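Much of the work behind modern protein science is quiet bookkeeping, done one molecule at a time. The protein below has been through that process, and both of its lines are reproduced in full.


***
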Amino acid sequence: MNQAKDSLSPFIDAFLAMATVEKGLAKNSVQAYARDLGKLAAFLISRSIHDWRELNGLLIRSFVGSLRASGLSARSIARHIVTLRRLLVFLRTEGLIEENVLPEIFHSQAPRKLPQTLSAADIRQLLAQPDSSDALGARDQAMLEILYGAGLRVSELVRLEIRQINFDGNYLTIKGKGSKVRAVPFGRWAREKLLHYIGQGRTVLLKGKSSPFVFTNRSGKPLSRQGFWKVIRRYALSAGIEKRVSPHTLRHAFATHLLEGGADLRSVQSMLGHADISTTQIYTHVDGARLKKVHQEHHPRERGAVKKIKSGVME
């Protein structure tokens, strides 16, 4: 029983850490999340569910039904559903569950909120913050470059191993959602910072120890997701970025900037490791001015008008 619980708890703990560090939620709110998710874990364990990947719509309906049967008020049940919905978003980000696992009846009626992104100028400012002459600074700079340069999930980044890096072809071999393996390219900036860190900073951090992991702390252990959340928040503040920045913000910027630069959706889907292209489509929000320009330049009924405007002749 405890063993089953432990297979669910690490992701609950990671979600709660994210809520604290990334979202900046109050202690009372995080404690309420913990209580709600404790009930969910106990319910799943009672039905011999040991893995979040086993979660489905029928189980969610049964869980909500059990809350009603226990005499909880409608308001309390609504709060549990909100907590569950936020956990599911986190688990989807981590690649553990499918997009449509939440029954339609429990979906919020509010429009889906797009992930926050950063401009190219914000990204340049953020990436310039670490001091690469210091071991930790070299590590942080390499992590930020790889995160933005390859669009990894934070779990994929902190668990990255040396064997997954191919410097000959400049790509990473990533095992993502459903244990599916994908090859993700990275550019010259990420290559340069990664080589610098591995050749110098990582050696200092390991202090003669060996580790399969690329990014470690001062003790030679892999950096945790929570630890990296704190790192990226610190650099965002020092860069003067007022938006709340998380590792997923850089993953979103990676996809958004590729699409704005002309990359096709299928290629971005492959690099992100999305099983369903509908998941990738949330990254396709671009400003209205650019859409209008594309429409004018490429629609057959508009191309002639554009040429006339440029030549100074407009009927």
Notes: Strands lie at 165-166, 171-175, 181-185.
